Amino acid sequence: MTRAEFIAGDWGTTHLRLYLCDRDGTPLETASGPGAATAAGQFTAIFASATAAWDAQYGKLPTVLCGMVGSTIGWIQAPYVPCPARLEDIAEGCTPIETPRIRIVPGLSCQNRLAAPDFLRGEETQLLGALNLFERLRQGQQLVCLPGTHTKWVTLNDGRVEDFLTAPTGELFAILRDHSVLARKPPAASAQHTGATDLEAIAFEKALTSVVQQPGTQILHRLFECRSRPLNHEFPAAAAAGYLSGLLIGSDVQGALRVLPKTSTPSPVVLIGDAQLTKLYATACAAFGLDTHQVAGPAASLAGLTEIYRRLS
Amino acid sequence: MTRAEFIAGDWGTTHLRLYLCDRDGTPLETASGPGAATAAGQFTAIFASATAAWDAQYGKLPTVLCGMVGSTIGWIQAPYVPCPARLEDIAEGCTPIETPRIRIVPGLSCQNRLAAPDFLRGEETQLLGALNLFERLRQGQQLVCLPGTHTKWVTLNDGRVEDFLTAPTGELFAILRDHSVLARKPPAASAQHTGATDLEAIAFEKALTSVVQQPGTQILHRLFECRSRPLNHEFPAAAAAGYLSGLLIGSDVQGALRVLPKTSTPSPVVLIGDAQLTKLYATACAAFGLDTHQVAGPAASLAGLTEIYRRLS
């Protein structure tokens, strides 16, 4: 029988996800709970409740938690580790609770390539996971992209996190779709909307192609096209969100490639995140001639948490 | 005694503003009413009610109306005049109601300099007004910027509207300030907020300077600074909206100057709009070495409506 050895957890803003793992990080069972945003003052109780059955069966297991649980709104503040950061720095930078049973993973800070301060939290664990999943990422200069509400573009150098750059691409998409006149769906369409429609997919490709053809253009001067092109009968208004998505992701990829270093090898860009989203980024990267490799976000998190557990135990 | 001769009106999405004017376009009295967004089916009644007192005193006067009143949500559709458009094209493109007493001013359409369809409505009248107020705008290639919810950058050539470019800069600012975690004010600050604070003004300048120093950077990759710089103690979180405004307006000016033709003369860029907003754009233009001349939006509208009345009477 496989023996449960530790608990790995991703405690983000909106959800707590826990995995009961064996020695190799294979998840045996899962548990969940409320996110850090609504957990103030209750972290200890929420965690105890979520793990009560495991405690009864296996005793209190060592635990590694990443995400907003370590932020100013979290259980305890796990300070940011400054870049360049090695794998060991992240594991060693963990902050203990109930010493040393529970460890909270730190975020990373850097001065980004636009000379601005930048921060991430949660993605450091997915990066660690990716370094474990892809041996080649440990050599030379490599590019990893973690698309999401706040997309992170990360430069690795011989396995160290050199620096990173944040683009709130997902957030911008959501608030423009929900609050702007530019890409709002007709009421009928939004009521039926359950995912990307064919029309949206075509509009996405159209936007992407036009971003490739107009290098260096500010996205500010292209957003109105979400409205003007339907008015000009180039695609239906119901597909405007697809066009918006293509403009945003295309501009994100194009702008990031302009700023980030050319990688020293022709290795694919590793994309970590939600499958639907990494697929859109893979399409956009391909439009700029870049190969990609997609990794599911939860798998990368779990691999990273397991690596941290191994290093700390 | 000055004699009332015509009625000039700007009937936008949210407001109707009417001016009783003498022969020279000097306003003698004003009236107001609800905007086009809530006037469906009631345009005739709203207009009759707003002008009843003037009708009683002067009879039914000739009237020129611009703005959304001529759009698909308006009183009657006044189709877009394609660019390049002359002054005469706009006056001749008016659509009559109660022939020929009331004239509705058409909008303009163009293929913009990013090869996309573009549209404006209401600004054509302000452009006509500016051409009347500034004789020099009628010669050579000139640049006019009308900042607002949807900022319009207009190229004039010997007094013709050659083309224009839309940037939803004001809309993006408003929805990011109201709905994003990037520039949301602390609750206390937002309750007191009645205008630009000193801290916001300083943050605006800081953002503007950094945009000048980072030419060609996608604004997508700078928006997170509204949050990361306060986290790095570079300015207080309450000033983040000022930094956001500087990033947006700076990127709008920089991106537009990259796309638009260099004007043939060193004439100032004419800025038409709300005084607070044209002042911010003037500051941004100055940072890029451009002189500007600011004109109040209502004054430009009235001058344009008067010019159309003169041409039609």
List keywords for this structure.
homodimer, Nucleotidyltransferase, domain 5, 2 domains, five-stranded mixed sheet, 14 strands, globular
Care to count the β-strands of chain A?
14
Major sheet of chain A: size, sense and barrel closure? 6 strands, mixed
Which CATH first-tier class of the largest domain in chain A would you pick? Alpha Beta
CATH superfamily of the largest domain in chain A: 2-keto-3-deoxy-galactonokinase, substrate binding domain
- Quaternary structure annotation: homodimer
Order of helices and strands of chain A: EEEHEEHEEEEHEEEHHHHHEHEH
Could you say what the CATH topology of the largest domain in chain A is called?
A: Nucleotidyltransferase, domain 5
Fraction of residues in H or I helices of chain A: 25-40%
Task: State the end-to-end distance of chain A.
Answer: 22 Å
The pair of chains with the biggest contact is: A-B, 46 and 46 residues
Residue windows where pLDDT falls under 50 for at least 5 positions of chain A: 189-195
Q: If you average the pLDDT of chain A, what whole number results?
A: 92
Percentage of β-strand residues of chain A: 15-25%
User: How many structural units, i.e. domains of chain A?
Assistant: 2
- Main sheet: strand order of chain A: 3-2-1-4-7-6
- Given the helix and strand composition of chain A, which structural class is it? alpha/beta
Q: How many distinct helices of chain A? A: 10
Rg of chain A, rounded, reads: 21 Å
CATH architecture of the largest domain in chain A: 2-Layer Sandwich
